[in-house]
Specification:
Helices cover 16% and strands 38% of the residues. By secondary structure, it is an alpha+beta fold. It has a single domain, classed as Immunoglobulin-like. A hairpin with an 8-residue loop joins strand 4 (82-90) and strand 5. The model is unreliable at 26-33 (pLDDT under 50).
Length: 141
Amino acid sequence: MKKEIWLIIILALIIVGLGAFLLFGPHTTPTLRGGNGGIEISFVSGDSSPMTIKGYVTGKNGWAGFEGQVGTVKLLDASGKELANGVLTATTEWTTLPTNFETTLNFSSAKAQSGTLVFHNENASGLPEKDKTFTLPVKIK
């Protein structure tokens, strides 16, 4: 009988611990995907600053690395005002595809609102016709 009580107490503590972790632990947005096949956004850390963004480029549709970076990103608020910008820095060899990248955006927002991440490719040629963008809606606070 004593073993059964201890077993129930231990199981209850494990369940409470897991519940607390799920409720109060780190939260991230779900995996997000780019729509063009050239850039894939695999992780956005959340809706507040600092916001970490991770993903990779595949070399398709004008999305590739150059000199250690694969592009830039801007965070716009609901009215289109720029809150932050960052460089998509390659975290793997930029000459080998796919190329992983990461950046962190620091910003402040007076209220919770909709926002947009606007990604720009690394256009080493400088030719306007090779400029590519990809937008991703986010929630910010």
